[in-house]
Amino acid sequence: MKVLAGVALVAASVSAYHPHKGSCITHEIGAIQAGTYMPNNHVLTAWGIVGAPGHIYARCDNGVLTCHEDNGIADAMEMPTVNCHKANANRKLGVMIDPEKIRLWPNHTLCYQYDSKFTPDKKKLMQDGWEHLKLTGLTFLSVQQCKAHPNKANLCGNCKNYISIKNDKPGCFAAVGYQAKGGQNFNVQDECFAPGYGRFVHEVFHSLGVYHEHVHPRRNIIILPSELKVARNNYMMKVDSVHTKYDVGSIMHYSQAAGVCIPQAKYNDVKFCDIVESEAQGCVEPLPKHCDKEASSVLGQRKGMSAEDVATVKAMYGCTQTGKEATIWELQNEQRARAAALKKKKDDDDDDDDDDDDDDDDDDDDDDDDDDDEN
After folding, report:
1. CA dihedral 55, 81, 219, 289 (to 10 degrees)
2. Buried b / exposed e across 255-280, counting CB within 10 Å, b at 16+?
3. Distance CA 250, CA 372 (A)
4. How far from 166 is each of 123, 261, 287, CA to CA, in Å?
5. Closest residue by Cα to residue 101 from 179, 170, 182
6. Which sequence positions are flagged as catalytic?
């Protein structure tokens, strides 16, 4: 009875669907067709690859449609606005993003420099964070330590590339991966240290090239559009990413307070809308009442790296302690092969459906011929 009730709930919700206050109807924006319905607080990709610099997405905010361009910085409050026509221009010119792959730090070593003044207690928390991060098997050096290293020519671009740790802007955010352009963005203001060193470690993971856990292609959470705290691109699923097992206990996962949650078990049969979907597509708009608060309490922990977090970094960089090589390329090949197999199966199923339709048409023709003969 509970399953049937759930199905009835979905059917009723879809049949009663009507545009909400504050929603938007788009004009043509890159890959977004004119006349597309967007609920308030939702986003759609207009051009490019989610998470890659240059990715353009449209956002509906209380009936106002704006476009934003991704600058490759994770956890930013909002991406810079851009003229929506830029997405159209890129598409019409045939410009195809071959996104710069997220680069890894050479020789398992990340360099850093403190470019703002931090109080002694904040410096101590960051030092504790560096010690915790050593569980990954990577080496973390200050620029000064790098310059004194006998192998400095092969580290961090001869010690010229590093994360520039500052606290001069609101929020906690970092550029993703090895930028190889001198000091790269890394900001941690005082509030970032409220839970200890966990948020600092979270941002270092971004610098290492790790995306948020809740953008995992196999995530089992719902996104609450009205509760999002940072730029919407931080919630868009990265279907093209190389990934390890989905981990709700990851230090890279957002919490309930940031607009994500695990739905209650009674909604297991409900298809909730993702952040890029609307009720017009036959899904149910996720709301706080759908959340299982107790089950969701594990999300967003900032106490330290989970075992899966450590395994992820070792898959990316290998492990100097054991001598095991990185497996990221093997994972990528496996996932691409799996995706290709699924696509082939879908194409074959579609072909079978087309053949069945053709057979039905032939049967109809035969019936007509028989009728003619009888008459």
Report:
1. -160
2. bbebbbbbbbeebeebebbbbbbbbb
3. 70
4. 12, 31, 36
5. 179
6. 203
Contacts of 293 (CB under 8 A, 6+ apart): 256, 261
Tokens of 154: 């092969």
| β-sheet bridge partners, residue 284 | 272
SS3 of residue 309 by DSSP: helix
Residue from 60, 32, 38 nearest 281 by CA: 38
What is the chain's pLDDT, residue by residue, as a tens digit (375 residues)?
A: 333 333 333 333 333 445 678 888 887 777 677 778 888 888 887 776 676 677 788 888 888 889 888 777 777 767 778 887 766 655 444 333 233 457 889 999 999 999 989 999 999 999 999 999 999 999 999 999 999 999 999 999 999 999 999 999 999 999 989 999 999 999 999 999 998 999 999 999 999 988 888 887 778 899 998 898 888 888 887 766 666 788 889 999 999 999 999 999 999 999 999 988 888 889 999 999 999 999 999 999 999 999 999 999 998 898 877 778 877 777 777 777 877 887 788 788 777 666 665 555 555 544 444 343 333
Amino acid at 48: G
Residue numbers in the known binding site for Zn(2+) are 202, 206, 212
Select from 175, 179, 185 the least CA-distant residue to 211.
Answer: 175
The number of angstroms, rounded, from the C-alpha of 125 to the middle of its chain's C-alpha atoms is 28
Record the tokens describing residue 116, joined without a space.
């703002």
The total of other beta-carbon atoms located within 10 Å of residue 160's CB is 14
Spell out the SS3 assignment of 89-128.
HHHHCCCCCCCCCCCCCHHHEEEEEECCCCCHHHHHHHHH
pTM: 0.70
8 Å CB contact between 255 and 194: no
Structure tokens at 356: 């069945």
User: Domain 106-208: which CATH class?
Assistant: alpha beta
Residues of the chain with CATH 3.40.390.10: 106-208
Q: Round to the nearest angstrom and report the end-to-end CA distance of the chain.
A: 52
Rounded CA separation 44/36 (Å): 10
Partners of 261 in beta bridges: 222
Extract the tokens encoding 92: 């019409």
The CA distance from 85 to 65, in Å, is 12
Q: How far is CA 88 from CA 56, 80, 134, in A?
A: 10, 18, 45
